[in-house]
């Protein structure tokens, strides 16, 4: 699964960069998402593979905090990039005449940079909270990586405080991206419903289908494990949900976008043809 994820996302990045027809805002955000997915899955899965081969699950306190920080950085960057892609679709469908003027290269680069720095801030806030805990040793985490939701539950203080912190952080870091996506799609839906022909409505909505599928898959599993761990103690369910949004979602993203997109498929075949 790790190799498939790396190969699929790298093919999308190479296809977008090598084909001039794909030098548009939508594919720029898609290649940025693929790059974030590569770094996101590389934070957890290689360590898990080593642990399986060496039959050792030991990780140092410093490495655990580093893994958690990088994991949150690129995980939250996925969220913000999905929001930027929703905004891009909103402009393309609702304001097509002004699309090229508004969504210029400078704005695209600015949105990606803002996505990175906001994600970096979020990861450092989580790090500061975990650093307030006692330096724990010989503690078992019921997951294959240093999940922040489980690390916060290791505090020696009252668990109700951890739950409050968990809900607060989850609400703050999720509210703005989800609100942006809901706002964009509400406007998109209202614009599509005003299209007179059914073929026109289908064509307009088909450009959002892949993005909407990725949003539902990523947010559904991520919020489920992140917020669900604060109210229930089911390590097995948390681990399964963690695999969904840390391993399965980055692997499926290239398939969801490439199989439903003729431009990506053509660019991939052209790139592979040139390479061969």
Could you give the topology of this structure?
Layout: H1 2-18, H2 25-42, H3 45-54, H4 61-94, H5 99-102, H6 105-131, H7 148-152, H8 159-193, H9 198-228, H10 235-259, H11 262-275
Helix pairs in contact: 1-2, 1-10, 1-11, 2-4, 2-10, 4-6, 4-8, 4-9, 8-9, 9-10
Note down, in words, how this protein is organized.
- This protein has 276 residues and is mainly α.
- It has a single domain (2-275), classed as Up-down Bundle (Rhopdopsin 7-helix transmembrane proteins), CATH 1.20.1070.10.
- The chain is 80% helix and 0% strand.
- α1 (2-18) packs antiparallel against α2.
- The protein is globular, with a radius of gyration of 20 Å.
- The two termini are 25 Å apart.
Task: List its traits.
80% helix; mainly alpha; 276 residues; Rhopdopsin 7-helix transmembrane proteins; 11 helices; single chain
In short, what is this structure?
The chain is 80% helix and 0% strand. The chain has 276 residues and is mainly alpha-helical.
Number of strands: 0
How much beta, percentage-wise?
under 5%
Query: Would you identify the CATH H-level superfamily?
Result: Rhodopsin 7-helix transmembrane proteins
CATH architecture descriptor name: Up-down Bundle
Please identify the structural class as seen in this structure.
Answer: mainly alpha
For this entry, what is the oligomeric state of its chains?
single chain
**Count of alpha and pi helical runs:** 11
CATH class: Mainly Alpha
What form results from the Cα inertia axes? globular
CATH topology: Rhopdopsin 7-helix transmembrane proteins
Sheet with the most strands, sense and barrel status: none
């Amino acid at each position: 699964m790790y190799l498939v994820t790396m190969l699929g996302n790298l093919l999308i990045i190479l296809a977008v960069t090598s084909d001039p027809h794909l030098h548009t805002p939508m594919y720029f955000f898609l290649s940025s998402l693929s790059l974030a997915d590569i770094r996101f899955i590389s934070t957890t899965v290689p360590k898990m593979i080593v642990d399986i081969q060496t039959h050792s699950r030991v990780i140092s306190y410093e490495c655990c905090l580093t893994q958690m920080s990088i994991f949150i950085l690129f995980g939250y960057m996925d969220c913000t990039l999905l929001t930027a892609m929703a905004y891009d679709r909103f402009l393309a469908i609702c304001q097509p005449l002004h699309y090229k003027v508004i969504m210029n290269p400078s704005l695209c680069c600015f949105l990606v940079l803002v996505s990175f720095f906001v994600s970096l801030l979020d990861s450092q806030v989580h790090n500061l909270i975990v650093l307030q805990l006692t330096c724990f040793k010989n503690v078992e985490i019921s997951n294959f990586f240093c999940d922040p939701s489980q690390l916060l539950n290791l505090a020696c203080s009252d668990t109700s405080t951890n739950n409050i912190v968990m809900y607060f952080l989850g609400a703050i870091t999720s509210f703005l991206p989800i609100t942006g996506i809901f706002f964009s799609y509400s406007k998109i839906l209202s614009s599509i419903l005003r299209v007179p022909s059914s073929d026109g409505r289908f064509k307009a909505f088909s450009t959002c289908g892949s993005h909407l599928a990725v949003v539902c898959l990523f947010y559904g599993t991520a919020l489920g494990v992140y917020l669900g761990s604060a109210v229930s103690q089911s390590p097995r369910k948390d681990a399964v949900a963690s695999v969904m949004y840390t391993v399965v979602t980055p692997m499926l993203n290239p398939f969801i976008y490439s199989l439903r997109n003729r431009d990506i498929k053509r660019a991939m075949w052209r790139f592979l043809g040139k390479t061969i």
